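Predict the 3D structure for this chain.
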Amino acid sequence: MPNNVAASMRKGSTVQKVVVPGAKSTKAASKKKDEDEDPGEGWDEWAQGKALIKPPDQLELSEAELKEEITRILTANNPHAPQNIVRYSFKERSYKPTSAVDQMAVHFVLEGSLLHEDSDEARRLRAKEGLPEETATVDTGVEPDEDEPETSDTPVEDGGEVEEAGEEDRPDSVASKTDRKEPKVTNQFNFSERASQTLNNPLRERSCQTEPPPRCTFTATATQWDIYDAYVEELQKQETNKEKQKAVASKKDNDKGKKKTLLMETQTDDITKVGKASKIFERMVNQNSFDDIAQDFKYFEDASDEFRDQEGTLLPLWKFQYDKAKRLSVTALCWNKKYQDLFAVGMGSYDFSKQGRGMLVYYSLKNSAYPEFIYPTPSGVLCLDIHEQHSYLVAVGFYDGCVAVYNNKEDGSEPMYKSTAKTGKHTDPVWQVRWQSDDMDNNHNFCSVSSDGRVVSWTLVKNELVFTDIIRLSLNAAVSEGAEQQPGIACGTSFDFHKQIDYLFLVGTEEGKIHKCSKTYSSHFLETYNAHSMAVDAVKWNHFHPKVFISCSSDWTVKIWEHTINPPMCKL
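Done. Predicted structure below.
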């Protein structure tokens, strides 16, 4: 047999085989023959084929470099595994990166049907098929030992016998298929199929039986007298029930009154909660819609003013109106010193023959569509003033001679303080009111002037207004020839207190005169200025110069004065 055939047979002996009875003897004989064969010249050729071939571009290393040990650490991490896998976390409601990445890479999978001969499954298979132990032996691919007994002593000389043995040795040969019975190979795992059936919960019926209501049978004979007595008893019961119901009704009325007040309070509380948010929302809408006006208010400049000689133009910005105050005239206006976007407007009528209701209204530049506060008044408002420190207090003078104080912090439209005939109200219209500094007891107070000639100081004490007359204005009439004219009462129209001297103040009259007065001398004037020919509408001390004041009148003149000099310094 040639050497290359023997080598190929040695190489092919590593293939797994299933040993069948009758094939062992031929296999052993062929193996012995292979060992006895001399390789000869063919062996040298096969050995030369395993010689190392050095490529031309291989590096040439020295002995030291060849002996150098290079340590490399092999890890089980897969370099191709993705590192940016994210999964949705239902707990945190967001995508989170996954740190655990599967590093295993499967290159080849083959599900086999071979069983180990010593396994329990192989024994069960042999017992099931009724095969002897030798016929069901499973070869794991390892060559049999050399010490196995030879079944045939006849040497095989030619290649034909070797080929025949090889054909018999192969499990897929026709002879092996006909001679041996293929065993049924089951799964290599110990598989068992199990099933269970759950029990349905038994139905339960619950029922209950109520006891029947008690019954009784009643029979009697009634006469006319029995019927009459029954009616009399029923009438007495009805009368007693009516008396009880009257007593209960009185209690219910009281309870209903209390409940109504509670309901009103709760409703107002709910409205105030929504009202604040709606007010802010309304301001935002108005500021967005009137943004152009706000920009003009800050940065408007008319280019045509360059061509006018000392004349300018007025640009109307906001227009404030209230539907329920359309027929009323604006009689007074005062800005809030603390909140500079807020101002109060007094409304009444200058047509003194047709006097009626009035109104006190607060407007804000942040919302020109609707007033912030509305106070209807029974008489027309002629003047008002807002407290500088306590901006929620406003003093108001009316046409009927009353003065009142309103508090913006309190709910309702009624004033907190109001003068009456018993508390010293004016008998004529009040033309001006002005807050003063607190007194020695830290009580708020303000002053007022009226056409009845009185300048009155009003003090807020607990729940009432306490008045004090500062001065009564008298008119020194000129004496005509042949008759004497009694001096009358001067009608005050305006006043103003000195900015530095608390007791010094000026009073303008309807006759056009200005009186310089003092709180310490209430019987006479310090000085009188023949200022105007008509009523003095306003008089004001200078904020920067303590001796200078200004006055304006209905005679269309404005004059600047120094209180130590009688004639005016300037006339406009």
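Confidence is low (pLDDT under 50) at residues 1-29, 135-169, 171-178, 477-486.
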